[in-house]
Write a structure and sequence with these properties.
single chain, about 150 residues, alpha+beta, 5-stranded antiparallel β-sheet, 5 helices, 5 strands, about 30% helix
């Protein structure tokens, strides 16, 4: 685990009300780029800890989400920061995420394939509520989807 990157992420989250006293922040949960969430992160429990069967590993989830983000029909893939409690308490823990937001013109059936491949429990159309200050807008013929691991 890259503790400097994690410290930088925790500092960034302070602007969203996250702190050791308030590890879940206040208000809307911030959306992070794939780089902000994954680079330096080796904590498999930070995303998808409840995946049924063996967890594929955080690096596999990162690689698959990068592949999705690189598609021509995808404009955004962002990770919603949900909880930093363990990151404040342990050098072995990262910020926890429970959902990924994808803006795409791909049909719902393709999004469902991504959900299954990533081991997410569900998919929800629309932004998490309340929406983050940096929430993306959907372009023409695009939809916003959440892949949820809770």
């Amino acid at each position: 685990m890259d503790l400097q990157r994690r410290a930088a992420l925790l500092q960034q989250l302070e602007g969203h009300g996250f702190s050791a006293a308030h590890p879940r922040g206040s208000g809307a949960r911030p959306l992070l780029s794939l780089a902000e969430f994954f680079e330096g992160n080796d904590d498999d429990r930070s995303l998808g800890p409840q995946i049924s069967g063996p967890h594929p590993g955080i690096q596999v989830l990162h690689a698959r989400l990068r592949d999705i983000a690189a598609r021509a029909d995808v404009s955004h893939v962002l990770v919603e920061a949900a909880d930093a409690e363990w990151a404040y308490d342990s050098d072995d823990e990262w910020v926890v995420a429970e959902r990924v937001v994808i803006v795409t013109s791909a049909p719902a059936e393709i999004v469902a394939e991504w959900r299954r491949e990533l081991g997410a429990a569900g998919q929800v159309k629309g932004l998490p509520q309340p929406p983050a200050a940096n929430a993306p807008a959907a372009g023409e013929e695009q939809a916003i989807w959440q892949l949820v691991w809770t």
